[in-house]
Design a protein that fits this description.
The chain has seven helices and three strands, in the order H-H-E-H-H-E-H-E-H-H. The protein is mainly alpha-helical. It has a domain of 99 residues: Rossmann fold, CATH 3.40.50. The chain has a three-stranded parallel beta sheet, sandwiched between helices. Strand 2, helix 5 and strand 3 form a beta-alpha-beta unit. It is globular.
Length: 155
């Protein structure tokens, strides 16, 4: 959504793109993995929690993609914290979660404004909440639809 400023918890952690599994913190990264000193610091446990909390406190909406949990078989504890913070700060959360997801829990469902099985539906709901015009045609929209389709194929 090009009209939005997106805060991603992955910013400053470019080294993660080379990894097949997501480590919880920089302490769990294979020592052979090349990362800068800055990446190592921002990927350690305290900065992760502080930045995620700060991001939730200043966002307008939380877009939560829980599809990767179906592949890993693990619930995302950090995401559950983010949903709780969003609830506390009265920020709507749009959650993408399919059947059989390890995160499927009453607290996740009740903290969410909406829980839907596809990123395309989540994007449509997000656009309504943020009072953005419906998706129109154009190169950015085609790219977004392609990325959403790829995410759903992967999970």
């Amino acid at each position: 959504m090009p009209e939005c400023h997106i805060l991603t918890p992955m910013r400053g952690k470019e080294f993660l793109a080379t990894m097949s599994t997501m480590p919880l913190t920089s302490a769990q990264v294979d020592p052979k993995t090349e990362m800068t000193e800055t990446e190592e610091v921002v990927s350690s446990q305290h900065p992760i929690v502080v930045r995620d909390h700060w991001d939730v406190s200043r966002c307008d909406l939380l877009f939560v993609n829980l599809l990767p949990s179906l592949t890993t078989g693990k619930a995302s504890i950090g995401t559950c914290f983010e949903l709780a913070w969003a609830w506390k700060y009265q920020k709507p959360a749009v959650v993408v979660m399919n059947d059989g997801n390890p995160n499927d829990h009453p607290f996740v469902r009740e903290a969410a404004y909406a829980v839907v099985p596809t990123t395309a539906r989540a994007i449509a709901i997000t656009r309504i909440l943020l009072d953005l015009s419906p998706q129109s045609s154009g190169p950015w929209n085609e790219r977004l639809e392609g990325e959403a389709a790829k995410i759903e194929r992967d999970y």
